[in-house]
Design a protein that fits this description.
The complex is a heterodimer of chains A (143) and B (417). Chain A is α/β, with parallel strands linked by helices. Helix content of chain A is 41%, strand content 16%. Chain A has a 5-stranded mixed β-sheet with strand order 3-2-4-1-5, with helices on both faces. The relative contact order of chain A is 0.24. Chain B has 5 helices and 19 strands. Classes of the chains: A alpha/beta (143), B mainly beta (417).
Amino acid sequence: MKLRVLGGSIFLSFAALHCTGAGAADVVAVVSAKSRVTALNSDQVADIFLGKTSHFPDGTQATPVDQSEDSPARERFYAQFTGKSPAQVKAYWSKMIFTGRGQPPRQVPSSTDAKKFVAQNPNAIGYIDASQVDDSVRVVDGR
Amino acid sequence: MRTRLSLSAIAAVLLAGALPPAARADDPSMFSFSGYGTVGAAHSSNSGADYLVDEFKPSGPGHTHAWSWDVDSRLGAQLAFVPTPRVSAVVQVISQQRYNGSYEPVVEWANVKFQATQDLAVRAGRIVLPIYMVTDSRRVGYANPWVRPPVEVYSLVPVTSVDGIDANYRMTFGNVVGTLQASYAQSDSHFPNASGFDPGTAKARHIVAVVGTLERGFATLRANYGRADLTIASFGPLFDAFRQFGPAGADIADRFGVDHRKVDFVGVGATYDPGRWFVTGEWARFDTHSVLGAKSAWYVSGGHRFGAWTPYLTYAREKLDSETSVAGVSLQGLPPQAAGTAAFLNQTLNGLLGLVPQQHTISAGVRWDFMRNAALKVQLDDVHVDANSRGTFGNFQPGFAPGSTARILSAVVDFVF
């Protein structure tokens, strides 16, 4: 009985998973137009946001800027670049924080704030809705 | 000393709690406060003994309690202080059931980290002994898929935090990130008397541990080696008594005593986690070259994520690679009283050798991420103890025989804040 209820919920969550996401706008990783970084693949972007490296491949300091957990762009970014759900990202950071290996990136509320922060900081890297890209930032994700 | 240290750490943590929470882009605070915890209960179908998830537990579900809140429930709080990008300090205090049954908070971490270069960091203070894949986050239920890391492997070496220094070096080879960590430390661990023999305090000195990891994409590989000089003073009288029985007795004391014994540990592990599913496994061997035996254990575990639900399965096995009984000193030709003493010593030694757990467990469970900072997990463990062992159990009652089985049902809520 209990098992059947559980099975039902699993099926429903699975169905829900496959119905969402389609048609949502793309999220792109961006650096400042003043940055020397021109291209990063999605693994390199993921490593910076997951605190696995604190530098761009050319050796310059990388300052990732995250969006708050309420921002819709955030969930899409982590799904796209790391394959992780919001809960998995949270679990990942609990591991990092409570082992003294690092703290999550600083946060801003929205794509608009992320773009503003990135545009002003040559070392910054952020992610924004593809529709918000302008000449203050440069898209770096080469896949 | 330890108490005073914990109290000041709690004071620091409470003080930090009064400060505004950290990390807005425009206001990067030097302090960040975070915490984790688990509330949960476990039930054992076998009331002939207590199921003990590690050697620090004085009691557990089974005989002492039908349902025990003490197995997994804990609260941890951490304060990180990052005054400059190069220097940081962290204090973590944890309250969970201790060897003496109390929940007195203990300082799990208290160290200062110096980032010497972008790839080399050095820490000093109380650090975690890095001997397993999830050693350093084994207490953080929220960070792990299971109710608790597989008991067979994670109870091999129960020590978690040690006092010393470590160095962490990161290397990048194309898409592969490698890390090399080396530690030098010592520890004093207090154990309860749940097995019928009171081990008291174990002193590990000159602990040297080396860990290498390779990460590429979704895959992580890990290998480590450690050694230490281990002394458990409470075994002293037993082996001193053996020494009174001539060369044969001295030989037994030399083979099984735990007085400045060189112990060593080897472990390997691998994880593949592309997001939708994961598979992970570890193998480890702890050779104490003493009465505590040479033990090895492994597990494989896998799960699939269906939205907020993650069902998982685990198989874990622990076995002894050394003998479970020895002939002891010969009673032949001894006067009656000495023969009686020798027989008692032989029996005690064999009793201790038989305490090493040998068992396998099949676990099935599900994690439900029901809200942003919390997860509910339910797990059923089917524990099969080997015919010549009493497994990871303690507080034995007359009905509990070697080769017993038990079903452990656990339900926990893990949270972080």
